[in-house]
Amino acid sequence: MFVLKSAKHPNRFYVPSTADANVRVFDLQADNTLTLVDVIYTGYPADNLTVDEDDNIYAACFANVPTLLAVFKDPYNARTPTTVLKISSNQGEGRFYGKKWNVEKVFQDDGSGISGATTALWDQENNGFWVAGKYRHYNTDVNIANSQEREEQ
Asked: Model confidence over 83-99: pLDDT tens digits?
């Protein structure tokens, strides 16, 4: 799990949690302390975050923790679902009513194709993700437009 710096706000940091289903947002203060400014409920524990040039956050999430624990014990044979979320600042009218963030499921696999992803990096040029997993020995290119998956060993 890594702390992620905002692409647009130089003193903002996003912190995922594998212990709960929240991403915490902190601002760095002039005295070098961090202040919690928001908590984004995602519905899933997240391992790593990435951010694109528009400050959209992508989270590789654990959709089924019990099967994830099985992968820890047997990474070559056990399978667990992969979920990727896109978290973006709400620019719609809902923001006026307190909804600051949009959380959208942009990719999910039941584990048969991509299992146990811990990082998802958005690739704007190819309209897809690079997905990797600590307990899997591959990187996977997921093309969203064509719903194609390629494994690179």
From this structure: 899 999 998 888 878 88
